[in-house]
Amino acid sequence: MKNYFKKFSIMFVMVLMLVLGWSISAFAADDGVVGTSNLNNAAENSAKVGNVLKLPEVGWKRYDDTNKNIKYDGTLWTTVGYSDNYTGATHVVYRTTNSNINSSYKFNFSGTKLRILTDYNIDHSNSEKIIIDGKVCNNSPYSTYSSRLSRCVIGFEITGLAEGIHSVVVTNQTLDVMTLDAVDIGSNEQLLPYNESITLDKSTMNLIEGDSGQLTAITTPSSVGVTWTVSDPSIATIEVDPTNGKLIKVNGIKEGTCTITATTADGSNLSASCIINVTRKTEPTPYPQPTDTDYITNIAHAKGTNTNNPGGEVTIIFHGTADTILSIVKTADVKDVWIGDNFTYTLVITNTGTKTAKAVAVNDPAPNHINFNVSGVTTTQGKVDSSSSSKNIIVNVGDILPGETVTIKIPSTVIA
């Protein structure tokens, strides 16, 4: 009898240890279990894709498929218990007619490396697409098809990611079985809730035909890629940088309203939109040319005569012979003036012909109520004639070559 109770006590302790051990494993699965040895007790990490890996290797931390930070999309996901799986169970979507296509799971994690533990079997999917930070991985899609059943297998591995937070979306592209048993990441990193968003810095944008504006998408995580669409490209178009997918500018094409939409490119298909209002471009009404002498345009035709003044008060005098055309534009740097105001007239003389205008002189008489400041007159070519006065300015310009321009500035004062 004594031996019987001794054996019974030992059995009870073993059962208690198993119960406690299961509880510890379940608790650790949510917090992550750090690896203490490598596969086959190798000195370095030796596990490869396709290897059964019951526990994480050194430098890795394992999270169970039941971790609250893993989000399962689709209505067919279920948890099934198998002793060969990590913690004795796995998430699975069984083969159906079409409902399991696009079934997926998502999570975020910190760090630079990732392993996904799954089941292999003859009826399992041979095409599971994995998108990290909005981009399809180079070794995606990966296959979990095998001629024999294996559980807790490394189905996917990636290393060398940039330090930081990464988003992961794994999607089944077939009608076959899809499973998730566990996720391994760096031993000092964390599995995080899948938390993704997208917003635009503007909800509306007003443009005039021919104008452009900028629109920026803000995503969480920031590394998630974005695709852009326009509801009506005849109203507005977009220019996108092909290297990073960022919108360079929005161009207003014609009057109307359209919508620009930004959509996350990692499979979550979150989107945000901006309404673009394009209005018609109206040409400004030209300011009417004054009828007085604050704006005078002369076209002087040199035909061998000494003077030629067809349309204004400024006179072109040719002391030599020429056969060309001179254009004169006279402007004032003010619109309205009062007695005592100072302003400046500018005369621009251009040889628009094909031959040189010889020995040109410019004669500009002062309008009524205007005095010229003779000492302040400047010219880009030639000299102010000594006979110039407050009522008349003469500038001996000299020869003007074809296409050449001479500018004369005459300071002036308004008098009573």
From TrEMBL:
<dbReference type="InterPro" id="IPR001434">
    <property type="entry name" value="OmcB-like_DUF11"/>
</dbReference>
<feature type="domain" description="BIG2">
    <location>
        <begin position="194"/>
        <end position="275"/>
    </location>
</feature>
<dbReference type="Pfam" id="PF01345">
    <property type="entry name" value="DUF11"/>
</dbReference>
<keyword id="KW-0732">Signal</keyword>
<dbReference type="Pfam" id="PF02368">
    <property type="entry name" value="Big_2"/>
</dbReference>
<dbReference type="InterPro" id="IPR003343">
    <property type="entry name" value="Big_2"/>
</dbReference>
<keyword id="KW-0614">Plasmid</keyword>
<feature type="signal peptide">
    <location>
        <begin position="1"/>
        <end position="28"/>
    </location>
</feature>
<dbReference type="InterPro" id="IPR047589">
    <property type="entry name" value="DUF11_rpt"/>
</dbReference>
<dbReference type="InterPro" id="IPR008964">
    <property type="entry name" value="Invasin/intimin_cell_adhesion"/>
</dbReference>
<protein>
    <recommendedName>
        <fullName>BIG2 domain-containing protein</fullName>
    </recommendedName>
</protein>
